[in-house]
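Whether sequence alone determines local backbone shape is best considered at the level of individual chains. When preparing material for the folding task, we compiled for one chain both its residues and its backbone structure tokens. No coordinates are needed to read the tokens, only the vocabulary itself. For completeness, the protein is quoted in full, as a sequence line and a line of structure tokens:
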Amino acid sequence: LTFFSLSNLYFSDFSHGLKVIQIPDKQLKNLKENTILHCEYDTSGSYYIYWYQKNKTGGLPLIGNSPGKDSAYLESDYEESEFTITRPESRKSTLEIKSLESGDTAVYFCAAGDAQ
């Protein structure tokens, strides 16, 4: 079995003129492998970075957010999961998913903007 993650779609915060970049744009992984998605915005301001997972029913639940460098929070539905958000630099964040399961197959989005 394989895990297929599309992360080539993103949100931008047009009111601030932000461009958000996600890398890689596609991944094909085996079950039980780990994966890391990267998100970066292109301006020097300080913004939250949000991670979302588009699920099979079409919902777009928030996985978690990072208000700034070295600070990140998972939503309660993801606290006991294999998901980890990091923010090593002010403009960059990563979403790591460990030991992939078939239920992790989804489209993942990141967004940058002010606090919700």
